[in-house]
Design goal:
Layout lengths: L2 E9 L4 E7 L2 E12 L2 E4 L2 E4 L3 E8 L1 H9 L5 E14 L5 E14 L15
Parallel strand pairs: 6-8
Antiparallel strand pairs: 1-3, 1-7, 2-3, 3-6, 4-5, 7-8
């Protein structure tokens, strides 16, 4: 059973596109760090009342589009399942992290300056 997560935040890095092998099949995955903030109105603007960093992964064709179109600082909306990742350090210590395996990553339109469309044949 997984926990569903929906959040908005800012990319801390350009998405990194990787090719990995899963069950003998090569698959594309985009990996990025996102700061999910908790902004609240304060005076003329907003104030961050605490947030957290999380690694977000996106797979397949969406991963390729994400790596091509998004950049550090972009405001994004992420939705998917939280997963616990475990690994062992070189010193033999077990470590773990919570990651988001995203079904969707979308731009928050408040920060979009312009949009260009591909033709149907492209």
């Amino acid at each position: 059973m997984s926990t569903h997560f929906i959040g908005r935040g800012n990319l801390g890095n350009d998405p990194e596109l990787k090719t990995v092998e899963v069950d003998g099949e090569k698959r594309k995955v985009a990996e990025m760090r996102v700061y999910f903030d908790r902004s609240v109105p304060a005076g003329d603007g907003y104030e961050d009342r605490g947030g957290f960093w999380m690694t977000v992964t996106l797979w397949g064709a969406r991963a390729e589009a994400c790596a091509r179109l998004l950049a550090k600082g972009a405001r994004v909306h992420c939705e998917g399942s939280l997963q616990r990742e475990t690994w062992e350090t070189e010193e033999g210590e077990e470590r773990w992290d919570i990651r988001l395996r995203a079904d969707y990553v979308a731009l928050d339109l408040q920060r979009v300056d312009h949009i260009g469309w591909k033709t149907k044949d492209e």
